[in-house]
């Protein structure tokens, strides 16, 4: 488990945040679209599994 500070994408249509650096979906967010925090979104199901 590799917990990190929560982050999400600022792209329209984003529905989840991430908090694990082993999450493939989270790692695919481009640096320019990555925003710190949960954004009031639900936790990514892959991050939940990795927790």
What structural keywords apply?
about 50 residues; 2 helices; alpha+beta; 4 strands; globular; four-stranded mixed β-sheet; about 20% helix
Molecular structure report:
The chain is of the alpha+beta class and 51 residues long. The protein has one domain. 20% of the residues lie in helices and 33% in strands. The protein has 2 helices and 4 strands, in the order ββαββα. Strands 3-1-2-4 form a 4-stranded mixed beta sheet. The chain starts with a strand and ends with a helix. 20% of the residues are buried. The model has no long low-confidence stretch (mean pLDDT 97). Residues 17-27 have a biased composition (Polar residues). Residues 1-41 are annotated as: Disordered.
> Which strand order do you get reading across the main beta sheet?
3-1-2-4
The gyration radius over C-alpha positions equals 10 Å
**Separation, N- and C-terminal Cα atoms:** 6 Å
The structure class reads alpha+beta
- Strand tally: 4
The overall pLDDT average reads 97
Low-confidence stretches: none
Q: Report the principal-axis shape.
A: globular
For the largest beta-sheet, the strand count, sense and barrel status come to: 4 strands, mixed
Beta fraction = 25-35%
Our count of domains comes out at 1
- How many H/I helical runs? 2
Order of helices and strands: EEHEEH
Proportion of residues in helical segments: 10-25%
């Amino acid at each position: 488990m590799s917990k990190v500070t929560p982050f999400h994408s600022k792209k329209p249509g984003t529905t989840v945040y991430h908090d694990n650096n082993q999450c493939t979906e989270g790692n695919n967010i481009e640096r320019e679209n990555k925003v710190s925090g949960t954004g009031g979104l639900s936790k990514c199901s892959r991050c939940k599994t990795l927790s």
